[in-house]
């Protein structure tokens, strides 16, 4: 089995990927798929095939998952909590009495998984369906009532720690405020009352259609993922429909603007930005942004896409090259009550070469001396595996491109080189190893450990070094997987200074398993399992999992470990340590020099006006984000919205904005100052000065 799993291992599973299948999630959490609709009055029931798959998935995950977890009452409780969150994460549909009635199942899920018993899953979801229909009728009646926003009352937008309503009356009051909050958000966009009512009516008509499209397979996927994700965030069950989407259809959605999408609650969420696409080049759209509306051309009406399926939104966003699409976007770090922003993109065919590494030269001044710093930006670790297999001359790869840039920068007599890995979610492990080899003599780069404890050391066998001068690696919270392997190796060899934010912390490897290979007599497709099977370790023995790579010089960041990255996931595999490999550190960067670099940075943080303002803006923004209570009185809400806009504008200064956009959507050469890149250049200049003393 072990050999079978490893041979299935796809290279892309090394990268930081969307952790859930592309199926939708309603406000109640259920994934959606196409096909026949079901009557809201009919109970959904499991099939005999699903009962077999439940037993098989339980066996596979408990036997071959890296964690080697046991099915017991403790795990059963976690799975049940996960399922409750998937069904009614907002705690707005089920009543407290419903949840209490199902407590009898909390410690029975482990036995049910082994025995192919799906009673608990379907019983709970069918109750949710009934409660949803009750809420739907209430919402329709509420939307008929005239709007009034003069009463001084508030609403807490964060429902995570809230309790389920105890009575129907308490639930009615909760939904009155939910609807009022949504209506007020639309009203603040300068819409008339009639337009607000029309949009709200359409929004909940869409949701009714979405809920009624849910089939038994969707409930089964949601339940199985409640189990799979209890083991770790990157382990999932994909239903047959969503397995097909995951493997085929979502890759097609990269055409047009260059963004990968999935449903998330009321909205469509951006799960990835393709380097080289319009979204990437404009810097206007970011990972985890939520799309609330789509419009065609400069004058087309904005279509509210709340509660839409991902397929339908993809159709709206796609279009002929050169045409314009406008999106209403809610940023992941948007403050409570902040309005969506509208962005304009020009569709185009995405060119592979635009995903590749790029170089530039910046100048910084340190202690009265000017420094030329070469910068190589690597958006992903790419490799033409087909070209490599055929031994084609000049096949595209990260390492070959960077090697060429290094030679060019040496010819330009730069004083040092910064490797910019911000937002690089990973890619080819081979490239991470080979790229490290450009900067070190031959030696180990990363260790890969099986769940059995067997460890393999991956090394760079080439003794030649392309560049032995001063270097820094710039990372942030969204530098993941292969990026972390490279940054960790450079840090362990003391070959360069790591600058920026703590990295993502994804130190695991997944494989896809086609379940039909294990159930050969099943006539129809039964889906796939994406399962974690290996773990990465640095050459010093420390895992990159959970903790990621901690920079030598840590810059102010808008992203906390509690909210973003592997450590924000309750089921993430823990950090641990194995034996170190044998390797020889560089002598150019010792602890004394690193201490000097930190002192110099601390001085700039206290004296440099831009850095001081950056740190202050981030502190203000983080404090503002903690407040999730908004006013439902229009005059107060307008003031809150203006304040939220001011703080969001300040927070946007921390974005990696490097280009303005002209009227065609094409980036112009004029650049805004990139504070992080400038600071990385100054740290490198400090290193050069300290090393020459």
Quick recap:
This protein has helices at residues 2-8, 48-64, 73-88, 96-101, 109-115, 119-143, 168-187, 193-212, 216-231, 240-252, 278-282, 310-317, 385-389, 398-411, 429-437, 482-492, 591-607, 609-625, 634-651, 675-691, and strands spanning 154-156, 236-238, 259-264, 267-273, 290-296, 303-304, 324-330, 341-346, 358-366, 369-377, 416-420, 443-450, 455-460, 471-475, 497-500, 508-514, 528-537, 553-554, 629-631. By secondary structure, the chain is α+β, with helices and mostly antiparallel strands. Strands 3, 4, 5, 6, 7 and 8 form a six-stranded antiparallel sheet that branches. Strands 9-10-11-14-15-18 form a six-stranded mixed sheet, with helices on both faces. Strands 2, 12, 13, 16 and 17 form a five-stranded antiparallel sheet that branches.
Describe the protein's architecture and organization.
There is one protein chain. The protein is of the alpha+beta class. Helix content is 39%, strand content 16%. Strands 3, 4, 5, 6, 7 and 8 form a six-stranded antiparallel beta sheet that branches. It has a six-stranded mixed beta sheet with strand order 9-10-11-14-15-18, with helices on both faces. Strands 2, 12, 13, 16 and 17 form a five-stranded antiparallel beta sheet that branches. Strand 14 (471-475), helix 16 (482-492) and strand 15 (497-500) form a beta-alpha-beta unit. The chain starts with a helix and ends with a helix. The model is unreliable at 1-38, 248-255 and 655-670 (pLDDT under 50). Keywords: Hydrolase, Protease, Serine protease. Belongs to the peptidase S41A family. It comes from Spirosoma liriopis. Residues 634-648 have a biased composition (Basic and acidic residues).
């Amino acid at each position: 089995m072990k050999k079978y799993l490893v041979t299935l291992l796809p290279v892309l599973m090394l990268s930081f990927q969307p952790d859930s299948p592309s199926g939708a999630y309603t406000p109640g959490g259920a994934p959606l798929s196409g096909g026949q609709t079901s009557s809201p009055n009919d109970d959904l029931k499991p099939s005999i095939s699903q009962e077999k798959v439940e037993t098989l998935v339980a066996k596979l995950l408990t036997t071959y998952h890296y964690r080697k977890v046991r099915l017991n009452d403790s795990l059963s409780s976690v799975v049940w909590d996960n399922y409750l969150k998937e069904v009614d994460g907002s705690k707005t549909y089920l009543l407290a009495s419903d949840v209490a009635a199902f407590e009898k199942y909390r410690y029975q899920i482990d036995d049910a998984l082994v025995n192919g018993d799906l009673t608990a899953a379907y019983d709970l979801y069918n109750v949710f369906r009934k409660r949803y229909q009750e809420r739907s009728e209430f919402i329709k009646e509420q939307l008929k009532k005239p709007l009034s926003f003069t009463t001084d009352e508030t609403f807490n937008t964060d429902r995570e720690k809230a309790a389920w309503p105890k009575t129907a009356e308490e639930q009615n009051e909760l939904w009155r405020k939910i609807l009022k909050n949504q209506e007020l958000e639309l009203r603040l966009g300068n819409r008339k009352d009639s337009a607000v009512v029309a949009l709200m009516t359409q929004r909940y008509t869409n949701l009714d259609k979405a809920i009624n499209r849910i089939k038994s397979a969707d409930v089964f996927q949601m339940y199985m993922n409640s189990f799979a994700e209890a083991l770790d965030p990157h382990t999932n069950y994909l239903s047959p429909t969503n397995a097909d989407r995951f493997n085929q259809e979502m890759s097609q959605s990269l055409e047009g603007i260059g963004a990968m999408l999935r449903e998330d609650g009321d909205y469509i969420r951006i799960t990835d930005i393709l380097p080289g696409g319009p979204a990437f080049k404009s810097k206007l759209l970011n990972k985890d942004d939520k799309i609330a509306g789509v419009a065609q051309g400069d004058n087309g009406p904005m279509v509210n896409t709340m509660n839409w399926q991902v397929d339908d939104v993809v159709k709206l966003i796609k279009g002929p090259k050169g045409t314009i699409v406008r999106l209403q976007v809610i940023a992941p770090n948007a403050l409570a009550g902040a309005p969506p922003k509208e962005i304009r993109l020009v569709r185009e065919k995405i060119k592979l070469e635009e995903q590749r590494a790029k170089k530039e030269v910046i100048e910084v001044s340190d202690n009265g001396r000017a420094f030329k710093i070469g910068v190589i930006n690597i958006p992903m670790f790419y490799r033409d595996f087909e070209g490599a297999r055929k031994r084609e001359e000049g096949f595209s790869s990260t390492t070959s491109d960077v090697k060429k840039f290094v030679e060019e920068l040496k010819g330009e007599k730069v004083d040092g080189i910064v490797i910019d890995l911000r937002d690089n979610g990973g890619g080819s492990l081979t490239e991470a190893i080979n790229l490290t080899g450009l900067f070190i003599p031959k030696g180990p780069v990363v260790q890969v450990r099986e769940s059995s404890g067997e460890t393999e050391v991956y090394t760079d066998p080439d003794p030649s070094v392309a560049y032995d001068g001063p270097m820094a690696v710039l990372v942030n919270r969204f530098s993941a997987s292969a990026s972390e392997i490279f940054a960790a190796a450079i840090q362990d060899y003391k070959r360069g200074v790591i600058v920026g934010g703590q990295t993502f912390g994804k130190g695991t490897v997944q494989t896809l398993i086609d379940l039909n290979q294990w159930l050969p007599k099943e006539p129809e497709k039964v889906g796939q399992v994406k399962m974690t099977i290996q773990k990465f370790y640095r050459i010093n023995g420390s895992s990159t999992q959970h903790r990621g790579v901690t920079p030598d010089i840590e810059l102010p960041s808008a992203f906390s470990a509690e909210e973003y990255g592997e450590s924000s996931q309750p089921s993430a595999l823990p950090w641990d340590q194995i034996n170190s490999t044998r390797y020889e550190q560089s002598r150019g960067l010792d602890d004394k020099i690193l201490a000097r670099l930190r002192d110099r940075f601390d001085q700039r943080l206290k004296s440099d006006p831009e850095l001081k303002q950056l740190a202050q803006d981030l502190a203000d923004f983080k404090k503002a984000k903690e407040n999730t209570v908004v006013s439902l009185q229009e005059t107060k809400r307008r003031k809150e919205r203006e304040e939220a806009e001011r703080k969001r504008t300040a927070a946007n200064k921390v974005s990696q904005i490097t280009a303005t956009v002209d009227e065609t959507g094409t980036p112009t050469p004029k650049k805004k100052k990139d504070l992080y890149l400038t600071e990385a250049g100054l740290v490198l200049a400090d290193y050069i000065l300290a090393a020459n003393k």
